[in-house]
From TrEMBL:
Region (Disordered): 369-388
Protein name, per record: AAA family ATPase
Pfam families for the chain: AAA_31 (PF13614)
InterPro entries with a match to the protein in the record: AAA_dom (IPR025669), P-loop_NTPase (IPR027417), ParA/MinD_ATPase (IPR050625)
Domain AAA: 159-311
Organism of provenance: Ruegeria marisflavi
Amino acid sequence: MSSAMPQPETTPILACTVSRDVQNFDLLIEDMEAAMGENWGDLGFAEALAFFGQPDAEALEFIALAIDSSDEDNLVLMGEIITQAKSRGIKVILIAEDVTPASLHQLLRKGADEFVPYPLPERELQSAIDRLSEPEPQPEQTHHSTAHLNKGASREGALIVVHGLAGGTGATTMAVNMAWELANIGGEEAPRVCLMDFDMQYGSVSTYLDLPRRDAVFEMLSETANMDEEVFGQALLSFENKLQVLTAPSDMVPLDIITPEDISRVIEMARAHFDYVVVDMPKTLVQWSETVLQAAHVYFAMIELDMRSAQNALRMKRALQSEDLPFNKLRFALNKAPKFTDLSGKSRVKRMGESLGISIDLQLPDGGKQVTQGADHGLPLASSAPKNPLRREIAKLAQSLHELGRNDAKAA
């Protein structure tokens, strides 16, 4: 390993680890040697602030700030290191072990460019270094998305939320296809629709529409207090020039890194610029779930005709009612519902609703393999299988929601 204050005339220093004691991060030492050879050094926290101002630091490309739970009492110092590095054009990779989400959030807000958990996954440090060297992508659709915000226009878009109460209940399929059907109603005067993936860890809206995940999403979510139309627009991607999409972040992040205030600001910004905002929720209840529930105009809870869905629906009911939250906002949607001629299945649906004390308001047919195939190809059902029974039902639902919205607007 290089010395703490290496001599640039013999070995140009391109990177430094910054930590209380780098020996606590032996895997980081190995990965830095593999990635940087002899072109790196090691600094303590106080040394780093002094070193940034020296001529030796001019060639520095990035620092790897390594912290653990013992360093959480010094977050102000950590933040100052990040701020000073960024002010000199030095990138920051945050390496963290056993650090609370709140602390991570605070440091990421200070401007850390990459976050890698410790122990380091294989080749993850090298991948982070590679991402630092890549220019920020500026696809044409980014500018198109910003233009599509229709700056200056004031709207009060309807918030439609889809929440799967168990894995595989079709929540993302519902959200993606609902948003696409709404975006295609009315021809030239089609409503403006934004689809947002709030499943920060396993969200797959980007996969269903074959869109890239971009770092701008997490940057926007981490700085919502400073978010404006431009920042929000640049985080969106356009799908076939009709649907604006906020994908899940490119990296898996803790769900509670995002606060209720962050989510509220994003929802308000989206509603101000779109007629319909469709949200795909994570299955997990988090601190901002109440924020979305309270703001929703329609909240679809996706279930199937099985025991796990019944148990989870009951648990959801108890959780909301115990906190005096508006459980009656939930509209239970049964995916893969029995066919009209399946009298036994119809009877089971009725018994399920009665035993849980819920109303199953929507029954969606089984779309079969075409649903999976369409998702794998990154296409909505309207494009991949327009005659699919599930697509037809979602299209009818979208039309009825749109007509309801128009009638309410006229009444207002």
